[in-house]
Amino acid sequence: MSASFKSDAFSFVDEFGPAKIVYVSTPGVGLEAIVVIDNVAAGPAIGGVRMAPDVSVEECFRLARAMTLKNAACGLRHGGGKSVIFGDPAMPLHEKEQLIRAFAKAIEPLTDYIPGPDMGTNETCMAYVHDEIGRAVGLPAEIGGIPLDEIGATGYGVAIAAEAAAPFAGLKLLGARVVVEGFGAVGRHAARFLSRRGAILVGASDSRGAIYDAAGLDIEALAQVRREGRSVASYERDQALAPDALLSAACDIFIPAARPDVLRADNVGLLQCRLVVQGANIPATAEAERLMFERGIVSAPDFIANAGGVICASVEYAGGDEKAAFAAIEEKISRNMQAIIARAAALRLSLRDAATALVQERLRKMIATQRWR
């Protein structure tokens, strides 16, 4: 471990964590990974395994902290963690399986961390992890799991959050125009569940391009395009756009559902919406959050709005089924959104500041019950 890694790791320690930062290296198979177990006051940490070529220690920590806040907000008996495997998620499948299995063996001693799927990994990857160490969530249904990406657990939670936040932003879901930045596992399901509530998808993007049609897009047709391995920009009805063109697209609800920090001080002013519902983890910088609040754009924070996946994972880990997972997602996210909206309105805060204060209060109460604190 390099000196720079160590110094970076200690630069963001606070009263809540991180409890552990572990650097994993298995040269024989080319494995390089980081695991951040942020907080375990409520129980073992749950957090996804991300595969990407370019995630820093700080970003991994920020993702783990979002999980801590998310799990505490939902009253789950789990802390927050996150891990990243450095690599191209589109690598040949046999190479990916080898890397995932090596990662699983490397984290076997970290019994206070329960891995799940994230960007670049899926239910099959979690099956490999479970096969190696007997500890994972988001498993395929065939081995008793609830495949959260397949059923759209996170996207369902995003839709519930949008439904709760819409009146606070002066909107009705019926006829609301929705743009999804990142039409993947989260974004496409969020669009589908929102359409069932009367909203209209007018824009969608992926890493290769974007599409916009003020008259509305066919969600199932776009999903089929993605299943075929093509970009939404190849959808023949409409004109293709650059991936970041949707930031300035006219809409009512903007859903960032891809990589971190897509909303920043240098581009957040382009938004033409009244409500942002954060489907991705940490999709906005702190400065972008402040600027949205100053402009009157309501922004439902990630650790409240996209908690559907980890709620589903927690239900699975406790032996529950898909029906129980959807019921828990609706109850917990709706309740949390109403709580932070009430606090934000009373104290004239942003939803993020209201949510952070609420969750930190809960975390401090949890930590106060621990022997070593």
Provide key terms for this protein.
single chain; 373 residues; alpha/beta; Rossmann fold; seven-stranded mixed β-sheet
Structure write-up:
- With 373 residues, the protein is of the alpha/beta class.
- It has two domains: 3-140, Leucine Dehydrogenase, chain A, domain 1 (Rossmann fold, 3-Layer(aba) Sandwich); 153-308 and 335-358, Rossmann fold, CATH 3.40.50.
- It has 13 helices and twelve strands.
- A seven-stranded mixed sheet has the order 9-8-7-6-10-11-12. A five-stranded mixed sheet has the order 1-2-4-3-5, sandwiched between helices.
- α2 (57-73) packs across α13 (351-368), α6 crosses α7 (187-195) and α6 packs parallel to α12 (322-347).
- Mean pLDDT is 93; it is low at 1-7.
CATH domain class of the largest domain: Alpha Beta
Which blocks of ≥5 consecutive residues have pLDDT under 50? 1-7
CATH superfamily of the largest domain: NAD(P)-binding Rossmann-like Domain
Average of pLDDT: 93
SSE run: HEEEHEHEHHHEHEEHEEEHEHHHH
- Taking all Cα atoms into account, the compactness measure Rg is 20 Å
Largest pleated sheet: 7 strands, mixed
User: In the CATH classification, which architecture of the largest domain applies?
Assistant: 3-Layer(aba) Sandwich
Overall 3D shape: globular
Arrangement of strands in the largest sheet: 9-8-7-6-10-11-12
Number of domains: 2
Provide the structure class: alpha/beta
Q: Beta fraction of the residues?
A: 15-25%
Question: Could you tell me the number of beta strands?
Answer: 12
